[in-house]
Each structure stands twice: as structure tokens, then as C-alpha cells.
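Memo to structure team: turn this sequence into C-alpha cells by end of day. - J.P.
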Amino acid sequence: MGAGRVFAYGAAAGLIGDLLLGDPRRGHPVAAFGRAAGAVERVLWRDHRGWGALHTAVCVGGAVALGAVAERAVRPCAVASVALTAAATWAVVGGTSLAREAETIGRALEAGDVEAARARLPHLCGRDPQALDADGIARAVVESVAENTSDAVVGALVWGAVGGVPGLLGFRAVNTLDAMVGHRSARYRRYGWASARLDDLAGWPGARLTAVLAVLAGPDPRGAVRAWRADAAQHPSPNAGPVEASFAGALGVRLGGTLSYGGRVEHRPVLNTGGRAVARRDVERVVRLSRRVTWLALGVCAGARLLKRGK
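Reply from structure team:
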């Protein structure tokens, strides 16, 4: 069986596994990587970009090497190769858990239980929930689902199509490191610089594919294109900008504005200025759009891999 079919069958099986099982409550491989990366940080940390770059190289290189060794070991057996790709895909994507968290918050908002929604929001994103009313929580959910559709699903599929199992594991390693050390705190401003920049590079193709698919799958394709072209470049993140703008236009809502993270207030540009304010019902709508984008991304990535390597 060719590499194209191995990836197509394995990635589809992995996404189905994620749909049926979600993330494990204990022993998640990404959590294990996080613990290993934390151990490396305790050894290497210095307030210096070079040491941070070494940390990034060790952790990402280790994940890619592990994937390459495993893929090579099972290559003689097509069934084992598909199973490994499926397991790797299931381990690195997080679409079902993303949707479940968003839906849990959405149900609390629909029931009028804003306190329950505030309590659950930190499971989905890093906003300060106490600073948000019901509509502010709904906007935070919509923005988080949009961004994480790219980070937690589409980006991984793109790199899986490019590099097989090493690509899947490497992308998730980069994304996890960025979440751990890529933010601009006093401790990580220099040490996390390499991880943050590598995440920008690795996330670039997946973010653009996510934006394109949101245009195709959303209820307002013209609105999605218009918001993407007009507003994406104003976002401080080169990858979240196209994704959030296209989702905003597709759903006909405004995103961005004033945000609060860890007591720090940010004033971001408004995306899709002609849209309406986010409402509670938009949580369910963004989850549906995210799911459609996910399965379209599988088709695009599997098809590209088949064309690249042949059957």
C-alpha cells in the first residue's frame, strides 16, 4: 500500500476515533510530551534566546525522530502503518474535545447560568471569565473554536499530509511548546522566542487552509472573503487573523475588541465590522462550522497526499 493511501486511511480512522472517543481523561500523549518538555526546560532554562532555541530543537526534534523511527519500524506492514497513522492522528487532533467544551459552555449560557459558563471557560481558553458577561463569554468561545480548529485539527492534518507520522507529531510538539513557553511573560520573552516563531511558521499553511474552508463551508461565503481581506492583517497573530476573520464573516458576527488575559487588558481590532454582536446561539453555529471545516480538511489533505505519492 502506498504512502498516500496509508495517510488517507489512517487519518480518517484517527478522526473517527477522535469523534467517538475524544481525548483520554488520563495518560494523554500530548500531556506526556508536555511533562517531558517541562523536564527539559528545568535543565536548560536561561533568560536567553539561544537556550530557548536549543529547548525547541531538542523537544521538536525528539518528537519528529520518534515518529520517524516508529513509521520506519512498521513500514513493511500496511495494516500496522495505517494503525500507527490513525493512532498518531487521534493523539494530536482535538476537535471533539474542543466541540464538547464549547457546547458545555453554550448549554450553560442557554440555561441562563452565566456563573457555570464562567467556571467552564478556562477549560477552553485563557480569558479572564469574571470580566465577561454572557455575550462576552459567547464571543470568547467563538474566537477560541475558530482559532483552535486551525491549531488543533487542520494544521496537524496539513503536516501529516506533508510528513506522515513525523509531521503529525512534530506539529503538535511545536504547538504545545508555544502554549507552554511562547507567551510574552517576563520568564519567556526571550527563552520562548524560538518556539513562538516556529509555531507561526508551522501554523501558516493550516491557518490559510482553515480560512479557505470556512469560506466554502460557511453560510456566507462572500462575507467570509470580505472580512478576511479587510480585517485579517490587523490581528496581532499572523495565523489567527485569517482564521478568525473568515469565521466572523462566514457567521455574520463581529469578533475582536477588548480582551482580558491574566489581568492584562488588550484592545484588538474588530473583525468583520459590519457583522452583528455574537449571541449565545452562535456557539452552536461555530461548532457546526468547525466540524464541516475538519472533514473538508481531511479530504483536501488526503487528496493532496494521494496526488503527491500516488496510490
